[in-house]
Amino acid sequence: MSEISDAPSMPMSRKVLCGVYAMIAAVAFVATWIQNMAYQFVALDFFSSFWRETRVTPASRSVTVDILMFGLAAAVLMVVEARKHGVPYVWVYLVGGLFIGISVTFPLFLIARQLRLNPAETLRIPAKDTVLLILLAVTVLLAVIWISAG
């Protein structure tokens, strides 16, 4: 005999958001690890060479400092939100961010957070914001492709 749950299911808008987060994580994983694997074949001492080369040019230093500071802000947000909404294993996402990439684990954490939010809450994003987010996503994807082709 099956039980019928009275709990509301997650609204479609939040399911779509989780799908977007999943796509971001997947693209980030592929894009970063293609570069990481290519780098591993070049540098015998991957970790020390990698971090040393993040300091080579002002551009590489800028991007490295930017992503490190963004990662720190994301880490604070992740711990606060995990405690607030009962998302388990927040430190797995953070440590995973160090070894896999914060661009992969942060969206995965956001999915876990969405799954913990009140399912009755709907997400309403104005059309203007949706269009601007799509334009931003296309711009970022083009930049990722351009950088990866380098």
From TrEMBL:
Keywords assigned by UniProt?
Membrane, Transmembrane, Transmembrane helix
**Has keyword Transmembrane helix?**
yes
Pfam families for this protein: DUF2834 (PF11196)
Membrane-spanning residues: 20-42, 63-82, 88-110, 131-149
What's this protein's name? DUF2834 domain-containing protein
Source species taxonomy: Bacteria, Bacillati, Actinomycetota, Actinomycetes, Mycobacteriales
